[in-house]
Amino acid sequence: MQIDVTRDVFKLAQVFTISRGSRTEAQVLTVRVTEGGVTGWGECVPYARYGETLDSVTAEITGLPDQLTRAALYDLLPAGAARNAVDCALWDLEAKQSGQRVWQLAGVAQPGPEITAYTLSLDAPEKMQAQAEQNAHRPILKIKLGTPDDMPRLEAVRRGAPEAKIIIDANEGWSAEVYADLAPHLLRLGVALVEQPLPSGEDDVLIGMERPVPVCADESCHDRASLAGLKGKYDVVNIKLDKTGGLTEALALRDAALAQGYQVMVGCMVGSSLAMAPATLVAQGALVTDLDGPLLLAEDRENALTFDAAGVHPPGPELWG
């Protein structure tokens, strides 16, 4: 078995800004696992918020043994970007070797399209209103917030897209006081979900706090081990493969979260269709699907995912799985 790692850069269609900073391109790692002349592949997006860099994740992957199974992988790497890319590559390899689709191997129902949110970058209110107007035809808009002055932005987006469902992602950018001040206005403005309003290490204050709309754990939820610390704080968990460390744990986290009474959102980092492809399996029936990474790119992989009025479609075998 041979494991290769390459760096790929995809230009964004426009500058993408969240509360932690801006970017003009998506830098990803592509992993290829070859055995017996068959190659499976996967993609990950190292994330500085979790102490990951392109170099550190590459080192984790290249340090793996040359004989590997998905079960063994979970003893060799922690949850995170490195394990995600290798796990997804191993799923793809197994599918190609067996002549079956990954959903069949995983024992889940054949996936179909899911309506996905479309993300509006953090900006001045008038510019966010213009973004909303341009995308008002989309059924779900996700708006990046996370500053003390977000009410004008939220009002502007609602003016720009009066019919769209709105979800908010604060990216840990609010204090308890800011969230408490904004919360009463969320229902009035038709907000359906709030992601990670407070820093993950400071979210105990959510216990007992009024939640007029569902609150979703993103940075506070990585894998099944995270669930114990979410009780009483969150209503929804955001499953991202770069956090769970692959499709294997993502499917297990989905099942465990649902069993414990949480609803599920399936999200992504900004990556290509290859990164989104495995997540479409996890997104089946989710409360919110947020797999719009390729829609934010100016360029994508060959055989890219299809996005249309029905949503994001599962990958064809020529892309993944």
Automatic annotation (TrEMBL):
Enzyme's top EC category: isomerase
Active site: residue positions: 144, 240
Necessary cofactors: Mg(2+)
GO molecular function: metal ion binding; racemase and epimerase activity, acting on amino acids and derivatives
A Pfam family this chain is assigned to: MR_MLE_C
CDD domains membership: L-Ala-DL-Glu_epimerase
Start and end residues of each Mandelate racemase/muconate lactonizing enzyme C-terminal domain: 125-216
Cofactor binding summary note: Binds 1 Mg(2+) ion per subunit.
InterPro entries, per the entry: DgoD-like, Dipeptide_epimerase, Enolase-like_C_sf, Enolase-like_N, Enolase_C-like, Mandelate_racemase_C, Mandelate_racemase_N_dom
Keywords: Isomerase, Magnesium, Metal-binding
Annotated Mg(2+) binding sites: 169, 195, 218
EC number of this enzyme: 5.1.1.-
Similarity annotation: Belongs to the mandelate racemase/muconate lactonizing enzyme family.
NCBIfam families linked: racemase_DgcA
PANTHER family registered for this protein in UniProt: D-GALACTONATE DEHYDRATASE-RELATED (PTHR48080), ENOLASE SUPERFAMILY MEMBER DDB_G0284701 (PTHR48080:SF3)
Protein name (database record): Dipeptide epimerase
